[in-house]
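Thread: Newbie trying to understand structure tokens

Hi all, I'm a second-year student working on a class project, and my supervisor (Dr. K.) asked me to get a predicted structure for one chain before our next meeting. I've only ever worked with sequences, so writing a 3D structure as a token string is new to me. If someone could post the tokens and maybe explain what I'm looking at, I'd be very grateful. Here's the chain:
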Amino acid sequence: MALDLLKKSRWLTLASLLALSSTTAVGCAAEPGDGEEGLDDGTGSSTDDITQVSHTKVKRQSIGNCWLYATASWLEALNKAATGEEKNTSESWHTYWHWYEQLANGGARDEISTGGSYATAADLIARYGLMMEGDFIPGEAEAEMSNRQSSALNAVNASLKTGGLKDAVARRDRRAIRAELDRAWGLDEGMIKRINNVFGEGVTRTLDRSSYAAGRAASNKIIRSKDFPVELKDPQTGQKVRANLADAVGTSGGGWWAPRSGKFAWNEVNYPYDQRGRREFWKRVQKALHDGAPVITSWKVDFNALSSSSVFSLEELQRRGPGRQGGHMTVMHDYQAEVPGVGLLKAGEQATAEQMQAALAEGTKIQFVRVKNSWGGIRPDRWNDAAIAGYHDLTMSYLNGPIKECSERDGQTDTTNCPREVTPLWDVVLPAGY
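---
Reply by user tm_fold:
Sure, no problem. This is what the structure looks like when written as tokens:
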């Protein structure tokens, strides 16, 4: 998990971020070697549903970078719609560059922050492009969970405390930062050379600002966002067109509060407080899902709301009381709703165009949304009866809340001190025109 939402007061501790990455108790960091039991060998792709979002395989985060896993799921689904192919892009590649920017910009002192946001991910894509998982870390080409991310995080944090990055002078040397990151990630000489060829040893070039870097990307197995095909809907004509990832991420608005610009640019939309505003919000989400768009969503997790059937429900939370909490980012896949004049449109069952149109009625009651998650596929330690392995159903009662928000003490949720009530659903990322 983990989102970089300081401006929205949604910071999380590392303990919270790791909560469902471990095979041990909720909130415990994964021990070396954990996380390989019960891996999912083929979940993630489903077209027999209302919304027809075709996702790639489920992965499993080992550190608090759910936002990068959600963004990767999003862009892989857009690419799959355009090409019919299933890509496995590297979350580790963007994690490497996220850490580099923290260090180079003076944003890390004793520890790296693993948190981020869709806007941060979009900017990383623009500056550093994409890489296939098997090209960046060949040994993890087919792995559901990246153990390298966890070991690299430990190594970088150790370097900040007692190693090469402890000294403030060293942290101002971009070549030294790169060298420490390369060691932490265990990159081979070939990979280091590719990065140097494109960006320079001290990262003096980025893809969005240097034609030299852009021209050398492909030969070094780095994919520019302009060269990554996706399917998008033209907001002017209403027709689906073959575009590229650069079109989808658009251009940064210059601050976390500013919308991204561009004809096809996707943007965050906050969840309204009033009921009428919420229904209009959900209509926009439904329209996007009906068109096969993988809608990114950010929400607050309370693990005591999670049932063995992979459902987050308010009833389960009320029965058990508050548990470990944190922020999370996932990608919507499907939904279930009671539709006036039609009846129940079930998630996982085919819906006609007429039924989907009827589902946009004011009186439609969405029961839950189904999301592709980054907590792994088959997880008998967490749930044993998911509708689709690796996917979770978020009930509308849970997303609307309110739920108790607890304080944190020593990096842990203090369930005895829950002074506020909050709405778990925070926002979604929608394509232009919705």
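A couple of things are worth pointing out once you decode it. The chain has a mean pLDDT of 89. The chain has one domain: 6-430. Feel free to ask follow-ups in this thread.
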